Amino acid sequence: MTGAPVPTTADDPGVRPGLGVLLAACISTLVVNANTSAVSILIPSISTDLGAPIDLLQWAVTGYLLVGAATIVTTGALGDVFGRRRIFVAGLLLFVATSVLIALAPSGAVVVVGRVIAGAAGATILACGLGLLSVASSGQGQMWGVSLWGGASAVGAAAGPVIGGVLNELSGWQGLFWLNAVVAAACVPLTWATVAESSDPGRSRRIDWAGTALVAAILVPFVFAMTEGSSWGWLSLPTLTCLVISVLAAVGFVAVERRVSAPLIDLSLLRNVLLVGSTLAILIGAGAIAAISFLISLYFQNPLAFGMTSLEAGLATLPVAAAVVVVAPLVSPLAHKFTARVVVMTGFVLLTASFAVLAAVRPGWGYVAFLVPLLGVAAGLALSNGPASSVSTACVPANQVGSASGISNMARYVGGAVMTAVVAGIVARVAMTKVDAGQAGAEALAAGFGRACLVLAVFSACGILLGWLVARRTRRPGVADLAAAAASTIHTLPPGPHRPAEVAAGGGTDGASTPRPGAGGRSPDHGGATISGRHRRHRGDV
After folding, report:
1. Which domain holds residue 253?
2. Which part of the chain is the Major facilitator superfamily (MFS) profile domain (predicted)?
3. Confidence class for position 508, pLDDT limits 50, 70, 90
4. Helix (H, G, I), strand (E, B), or coil: what is residue 138?
């Protein structure tokens, strides 16, 4: 962006976003995240109503996340080039269309197709909505707006299972998707009437379509292998074929990204050990919560376990969501006092211990026996997620924050898709093996659930080591890094000119900190506006 520099420090009140852009961005992200978290609760009802197997409907969850991973950066780039409002509205309209398609679906396959397309719509809404919010504000006003946006996404994710359960009881599982369509449709005229168009005329107009396609080519066969490998055989031809396709696509992706002028991912960033470590920590945390949410939704509703209704299962998750809300505000003060490293590591210790307890599940366990470790999972996620998100942007130069944020965005989706697929495959395979060996159905189901939680405990234990790594030698987070943490319920900041380099109070680390003077720079390959010391003033309302 061009224009006179606007000094932006941690104490600068800046400019708050207008009411129109704030409502459009926050309502849409709330709906998208509520939809994402509610679908797992509805899978048993969809399966019964449409006669679709659970293993097919699992792709309604993983397919959505896979497409989101492949498109989250690209849709943000489309907004930078063709106008954020225009692309945001296109995402809303696509979300409306896919919601109607799913609500009218005559089969499970149509539900899955609708959800796969909805993954692109959701990614577009999140990327461009946050971009619109960022360009309409600055300084502390921007952090305030992004914090509200992050809060809306957290509320949506927490309320989704309950909303889905209530609507399923009142109107059937289709009710959730009709509600999605109505709310998203209402956001369209709100956006056109109140939000100013913005773009980045200085950004390259080239879009890395090849990179986007290759990301999908890496992830889809890999997730197929993880999902079906236990039944196909890990050394069978189909499994090995999927893995070979993923490897070849990864090689092709590296070759393409080295040659294109506006790459999807700046590969030079992968030499940054701190960024790679924090991204892996983000991937594990996001994957763990997505996987356990999927497992709990199915286990609680299974007649061999609790046999809850969808509403009861949704209400059963409320204390877990409440734990995240309670712990999240404590993260920043704890990071001030004990360093980000300690907080991240503590979060992963809690996750590891909680999953280890859940791995010991037995058929006779009551709800309270599940609730205690699930509260530990929630607290562990809250402690690890925000600081890791902040570190992922604080460990790179100012002109690379947008690219680093894009990597974090993709990691959240990838973690959710891969780990959900892995645990679903484990539960199905272990339960089938136990039944074939003569065990009762309830015991077999509990054994599969426990084995999946054991795998999640191992992944979380790796996060402890990553926690030791990710918070070293970074500067203290600035305004944008703190906003990144505030928005970390789904992803961090959108690609674009970046946050000020002045050192902000709080969120200290245990390594050396060298503040860089001056305003944020321009990323050579991404445009847009985030928390920046140099941008053109845009109004959120007209």
Report:
1. 214-259
2. 21-475
3. very low
4. strand
